[in-house]
Amino acid sequence: MGNNNQTQKEKQYQSLEKKYETKRPVLKNCLKAFLVGGLFCLVGQAITYFYIYFFNFTEQTAGNPTVATMVFISMLLTGFGVYDHIGQFAGAGSAVPVTGFGNAVISAAIEHRTEGFVLGVGGNMFKLAGSVILFGVFSAFIVALIKTLLIQWGVI
Amino acid sequence: MLPMFFWAFVVGGVICVIGQLLFDVAKLTPGHTLSLLVVLGAVLDGFGLYEPLADFAGAGATVPITNFGNTLVHGALQEADQHGLIGVLTGMFEVTSSGISAAIVFAFIGALLFKPKG
């Protein structure tokens, strides 16, 4: 009997919780992410053309210096505390571009500098971005291994 | 040149929307979302689909984090082409090095220059 009451109360509480839980404005968030993320890529495209026209990179190779430049910009934005505000507004729009990866590394480095440069900065730099590197490298290893084997066996 | 800017904006924006949907609808943490996108990029390049996207959308495909997985596979395959299986390991960071080195170098410079806030 008491048990039954409990579950009823729990149910009531859950419905109450659902009622007052702030709904995530998915559409609005997506629109913001689209605009800001697109803007980052637009800047990236401008940097790509800059490297193609002034440093003799090709369309294929210009991606690398572009990524490095974007990470540099990310350092400045993170250091001056601007990237946090962009992140609050744009959500995934600021996390998904490579600047978000840069921000994760750089903010961890700056945050832990009080613990010293070796144990603090060095030890915590990849605290947040480490998972991206791990799963990127591991999945790339598996994919490349399978593809290489298939090519060697003459399947593809 | 102008259509390239347009498609960079649209494709980059769409990839970010996919990330936002993983945040909001699938309720994943940013760490899980980014890891998933990187794996997605690696798999897409395994099927040879990422390069056409990059040719078409330029920075729209090379700036999002999915490109990290793509370049890892790319470097590994390039090297594997010349040296066989061992190339998968030795070539892994061949193409990606700019992103990682830039992140490490600039993070250290950032830690030297800036003090933590709040």
UniProtKB/TrEMBL annotation, chain B:
Superkingdom of the organism of origin: Bacteria
Entry's transmembrane regions: 6-26, 33-50, 95-114
Coiled coil: none
InterPro entries per the UniProt record, alphabetical: Spore_V_AE, SpoVA
Keywords of the record: Membrane, Transmembrane, Transmembrane helix
Pfam families recorded: SpoVAC_SpoVAEB
Cleavable signal peptide: none
Keyword Iron-sulfur: no
Presence of the UniProt keyword NADP in the record: no
UniProt protein name: Stage V sporulation protein AE
